[in-house]
Amino acid sequence: xxxxxLPRPAPISLxxxxxxxxxxxxxxxxxxxxxxxxxxxxxxxxxxDYPFRQNSDFHYLTGFPEPEALLVLxxxxxxxxTVLFCQDRDPAQEAWTGRRYGADGALASFGIDEAFxxxxxxxxxxxxxxxxHTIYLPxxxxxxxxxxxxxxxxxxxxxxxxxxxxxGYHDVCGLIHEQRMIKSEAExxxxxxxAAVSARAHCRAMRTARPGLHEYHLQAELEHEFLWQGxxxxxxxxxxxxxANACVLHYIENADCLGEGDLILIDAGxxxxxxxxxxxxxxxxxxxxxxxxxxxxxxxxxxQQRAVDAVRPDVTLADIHAGVVRDLTAGLIExxxxxxxxxxxxxxxxxxxxxxxxxSHWLGLDVHDVGRYRIAGxxxxxxxxxxxxxxxxxxVPDAEDIPEPYRGIGIRIEDDVAVTADGREVLTDGVxxxxxxxxxxxxxx
Length: 445
Ligand code: GLY
Ligand code: MN
Ligand code: MN
Known about the structure:
By secondary structure, this protein is an alpha+beta fold. The protein has 2 domains: 166 residues, Creatine Amidinohydrolase, Chain A, domain 1 (3-Layer(aba) Sandwich), CATH 3.40.350.10; 262 residues, Creatinase/methionine aminopeptidase superfamily (Creatine Amidinohydrolase, Alpha-Beta Complex). It has 13 helices and 21 strands. A 6-stranded mixed sheet has the order 6-5-4-1-7-8, with helices on both faces. Helix 5 packs across helix 6, helix 8 crosses helix 13 and helix 10 packs antiparallel against helix 11. The chain is elongated and about 80 Å long. The N and C termini lie close together (11 Å). The structure holds glycine and manganese (II) ion (MN) (2 copies). Glycine (GLY) binds next to loops. One manganese (II) ion binds next to loops.
């Protein structure tokens, strides 16, 4: 097993974080303010917490890695537009839970204009929001709204001294999410890396697989490679489904024994610097596809490859999905799993017995990344800098009317694709998907 390390890409620069905040503020009225909170620690039990993962929007605007922080953007403010509230320095607590930046550290390391520790928040925040009419925040964030309400109460009480309280909320997420949809060069470098690490992990699982091991052994191989390469871990719960478990779309028990004739479906991706990889491959536990498995696999692969090749600016996800449905349905008819005319099977949706999910989703800081899928009722057109997955599959029920060799087979093939000026860049081609290449990898040495 190769233990070499992939070179790490550069982190996002402070200048880029500043640029993101500037772009957001440019889109907002001069008398508004933006408030975005970090994620909070969540108690698992007593004095143990769930692993901390930063809020993606907060991360996108700051790069600040701690919980219990609040970003305040104040367009046009003299003395600095970006203010951060963060955890108080507390040497006794830090001896247990790790170093905190504190206000001085945040100011020194994150390119912001002003920082305060949370002990000052209740007095400083009303001062900062004085005269700011509309507050842009994530509308579903009740904690942040509560802080604004507190400021409003304080500022209303000080009205006779000239204070001006905010008089409206607006959601900020739509604006941030539209920015997040188009990845910069630095973001693409991180996503290439998350994809490359994910691809190596899949190769490692393929090489290790053999009948008699359990699904969790392959999960261990994948997640070992993620951590070995400096990823923080999986970007979502790792799916290792052998045999008919592959037909359960979000199967995460990963508990069963790999059977001799099983196909194994692995859907797993690394999270690197908070960017997600998302790869699915399907391969035979014993290293050789049976005839029926290969035939069905090639139907999915044909549809998947054509869908990947269709990715380019101005195409829509609806176009890509329609092409996949057509190719899969034609394949199912040819194999006798569906009967009738192609257009009828598409129109009456009989293909949905075998393919019931959509073909793509956006990918980025979140595995199912943010950004609108439809604009003015129409499927959105792709543009350079967008990143999406292409992930058709076929899931054959274990039912009496299905020819025996196909029963209970689940196959999905998923790649991550960036839209470029004139086409696409496939980020996940570090792991094979053609049957001969998979077999060669599994049986090499
Ligand atoms: N791994 C989740 C998905 O492929 O959408
Ligand atoms: Mn996916
Ligand atoms: Mn996936």
